[in-house]
Amino acid sequence: MDPVLFKAAEAGNIGPFENYQTCSLNQLLTPDENTILHVYLKNQSSEPEFTDFVDIILERCPPLLFQANKRGETPLHLAARYGHSNVVKVLIDRAKALPADPESGVTKAKMMLRMTNGERDTALHEAARNSRSHVVEILTKEDPEFSYPANVHGETPLYIAAYIDDYSWGQEREKVIDEILTNCISVDYGGPNGRTALHAAIEVGDHVSETARKLLEKEKKLTQTTDDNGWSPLHHAACYDWSPRIVQVLLEYDASAAYIAETEKKRTALHIAAIQGHVNAMKEIVSRCPACCELVDNRGWNALHYAVASKRTEVFKECLRIPLLDRLKTKKDNKGNTPFHLIAALALKLDNWLLVFRFTEEGIYGLNKQKLSIKDIYNGRLAEIQEILESLEDVGSGPFGCRRRIVLEETNEKNKKEKDASNKA
């Protein structure tokens, strides 16, 4: 593309193109095969007030309407990405004026709306990703029957909208979700790795609990949909610091979600909340589904075992103040260890757990399968202690970036002692 024509296209200046051969306008290309319409749409910092340039160019060269660049992007993809809703209307109107496909009967407008780029994104994917609610409204109302499928990354438009975590786009984001849920007859909720839009909304933060409500009002089964690791939305909610409000919303719609165990370790959401130290989330789960306290993982660990594994004494003590969890303190795992058997091992290494151990009534916890009491463990059966300590580290934290926000008290205590020794020296 000649530099003069490129600059004219950037500015939306029709003059240099008036004397250009109409049949050759679609041959004016950049190295990325962007046409003059691509160049124009990419370089508008705000929505164009007038659509004259687009109208005239398409009047002179209709094939530009569907012509894609190297990335497979049509003018509609770009207009949707940048939020040029008036241009989107022009493009759709132009396509409507063309005859429908004789074989399928699908109109040219719907064919354009359903066209995908190199990553299988439609214009709706682009509009959702950039929170262009006005464009989303236009696109979904034009083709409400179409269930927009996932792109190459497994993302549907609804998943993309739900996963946006830019708080400054909060209202636009909510409008995008509303338009998709309201206008689309058949909604695809899917996302990558088996997740859904509900999983995505939960990962964004507590301020999207209303988004979770909207999704569940439309499709209640989302509470039971697990990702590739067997994690339900409730597992993900239990994993984050902001979880109590979202946990409450999920359990309001489906308390039975508390019984869902993950694929590998068989942990429930209550186990996850315990290892994360999220006592408020634990209280929500226990109050709405008390029987789930009986569930154990593949090692026979209950939620109180996991509270010990969090290595936070304050978390463990808070759990003991919850009657249903306090009853778990004498329950044994597959090796016969109660939560206090684990504490006995920790007490040898961490001073703060020693205080918990010293005020423990020994007799009620019995012997494990090695015929060891909690006092026996504390008094030095090193092989058993090492095995327990290793088991406390092998609890995992969850897939897809769910982080264990656990204070490594042993390391901190060691560093403190080293620092004190250094200061004394």
From TrEMBL:
SUPFAM superfamilies attached to this UniProt entry: Ankyrin repeat
Keywords: ANK repeat
Coiled-coil annotated residue ranges, if any: none
Entry annotated with the keyword Transmembrane: no
Keyword set includes DNA-binding: no
A Pfam family recorded for this sequence: Ank_2
Start and stop residues of the ANK repeats: 71-103, 229-262
InterPro entries: Ankyrin_rpt, Ankyrin_rpt-contain_sf
Name the record gives this protein: Ankyrin repeat-containing protein At5g02620-like isoform X1
Originating gene: LOC105141805
